[in-house]
Design brief:
Blueprint: H1 8-15, H2 22-35, H3 38-54, E1 56-57, E2 64-65, H4 71-74, E3 79-86, H5 89-96, E4 103-107, H6 126-132, E5 137-140, H7 146-159, E6 165-168, H8 184-192
Parallel strand pairs: 3-4, 3-5, 5-6
Antiparallel strand pairs: 1-2
Helix pairs in contact: 1-2
């Protein structure tokens, strides 16, 4: 027996969430209908609406925020001479948790992915071009994937004429990982990013 038609619309929306397939989406739909009372459903709906209304992209870096300019861009304690280019806001949060970087960020809002119709014009690159002249170092921190590498190469190409120093974050072996299980590309980058040990 197929799933009830009256759940199809709700299931289809849950399926739009990343990592959620048909079965999981159906489970979510049943849970909402059977387990949540009317007040909880209204609260859930209102939270979605309010969050969507309040959250926006920072006018400067493109990170998600509830202000015109995010706290990082408006902070007087950040190093304004460094800009790290990342894929999305989640990358910013991950890097901030390390407490190892004190510069600014620029969020692309995705990666160049030709097969999905995503090109440079679909990303937040034009505003980066305006910011580069005000900085001394551009750090490219796109993921080590085909799309991430393609995006990094594109950025390096368009900004190579600028006087700004360009660098890329290193990729290497994961902590606690065995070399025999590491893929060839990661191993190659680990070798390329090797550093001299102190004598």
């Amino acid at each position: 027996m197929n799933e009830p038609v009256f759940l199809e619309s709700l299931v289809s929306y849950f399926e739009k969430l990343p990592g959620v397939g048909k079965k999981t989406a159906t489970r979510y739909a049943y849970y909402v209908v059977e387990k949540l009372n009317d007040d909880q459903v209204m609260d859930f709906a209102n939270t979605l609406i309010e969050t969507k209304k309040k959250i926006r992209h920072c006018d400067c870096c493109g990170m998600l925020t509830n202000k015109e300019t995010c706290d990082i861009c408006s902070s007087s304690y950040r190093n304004k001479k460094q800009i790290m280019v990342v894929k999305d806001t989640k990358d910013v949060i991950a890097i901030e948790k390390t407490n190892q970087y004190n510069g600014l960020y620029h969020v692309l809002g995705g990666l160049i992915t030709p097969l999905e119709g995503v090109g440079p014009s679909n990303l937040n690159i034009e505003s980066l071009d305006k910011r580069v002249s005000e900085t001394e170092e551009l750090i490219i921190a796109t993921p080590f994937t085909p799309q991430g590498e393609m995006t990094a190469v594109y950025l390096e190409k368009i900004f190579k004429e600028n006087s700004v120093k360009m660098s890329r974050i290193g990729y290497g072996l994961p902590a606690g990982g065995d070399i025999e299980y590491v893929d060839e590309l990661t191993l190659k980058r680990a070798l390329d990013a090797r550093v001299e040990t102190k004598k």
